[in-house]
Amino acid sequence: MPQPNPYIDAPVLPDGSDLDPRDLLAAPRGPIEIEIGPGRGGFLFERLAASPETSMIGLEVRRKWATIVDGRLKARGFGSRGRVFAEDARYALPRIRAASARAVFIHFPDPWWKKRHQKRLVATPGLLEEVVRILEPAGELFFQTDVAERADQFEAQVAAVPLLTPFGPTARVGENPYGAMSPRERRAVADGLPIVRLRYLRVGDPPP
Question: Model pTM?
């Protein structure tokens, strides 16, 4: 007899479009930041602890980890200003209100190399268009990977987006400036693997 899915009630976004991220949190504080693919939540927990005046939303395609991490946020006292939803960012971001996020984080995405897996890629030009739309003016996009080819590909994609500009003289930064690390980043640092970190600034007027 088939066993019931233990994650059938995973947290998901409410119906509708033009969702205000602040309405998704019980007691949001300060600006909203969004992490795409938080996995087991390491960066999310550390970021909320390091920045008490920040609120965060994670979009995690795996229902299991969205459920577990969302529950752990509540258990650790972060539930009022931190949530994780079982959503594919490619379809969730278009439903989020324009100019509503201060930062978007993408950590070590897309471990897909075979041609048949290309449809599963997250970091695509289409996603970047939505990131630009939801970022407030002077908002930040932070991307990091330990795969040089992925970094080069992402950098080329961003170069074609007129409203994203390198945060400094170049987009590539040596250190993570956010006081939080994803588990993958921590492992890469421990193993001595080179990490490419790209930091961008949202410029111009908010998109329509």
Answer: 0.90
